[in-house]
User: Fold RDD family protein from Cryobacterium psychrophilum.
Amino acid sequence: MPDSDSRSSPNGPPAPSVWPGERLGLPRTGRGSIARPGRRIAGVAIDWSLAVGVSMVFFQYDAVANSVIFVLLHVIFVPTIGGSIGHRLVGLRVVPAQGGWIGPWRGIVRAVLLGIVLPALVWDSDQRGFHDKLAGTVLIRA
Assistant:
C-alpha cells in the first residue's frame, strides 16, 4: 500500500497539486505565482474599459469594433510588454509555460480565444484558462 504522503503512485495517476501552479514549478505565493481570479478580473475589466473608450471615440460604440479592439490590445501588448495594459496595471504578466519569449503566435492564439470568452471560463487545476493552455502560456504575478 503506498504511503499517504506520496505525491505519485506507481500504480495510479499522480496526486493532485497542493497549490495552483505547483505542477508547473511555480511558487505558491508572491512573484511568479499563478495569478488569482481577483487580479485577472480586474485586468480584464481595465482592458474592456479601454476597448469601450476607443470604440466610443472612433466608432460611436460598436459592439463588434469593441471586441476587435479588445483582441487587438492583447495581440499587440502580450508579446511586446508581457501582458495587456490591464494585466500590467494590476501586477500580472503572461509568460510561456516552457520559458522563453511569448512571440506573436502565442499572443494571437491567446487573444482570439480570450475574445471568444468561453475558453477563458474553463480552467484547469492550475487555474489556467483553456486559452492559456492552447497558447502554452501562464498568467503570473509580476
About this structure: The chain has one domain: 27-141. The mean pLDDT is 87. The helical segments are 37-59, 63-81, 85-89, 103-116, 118-121, 130-135.
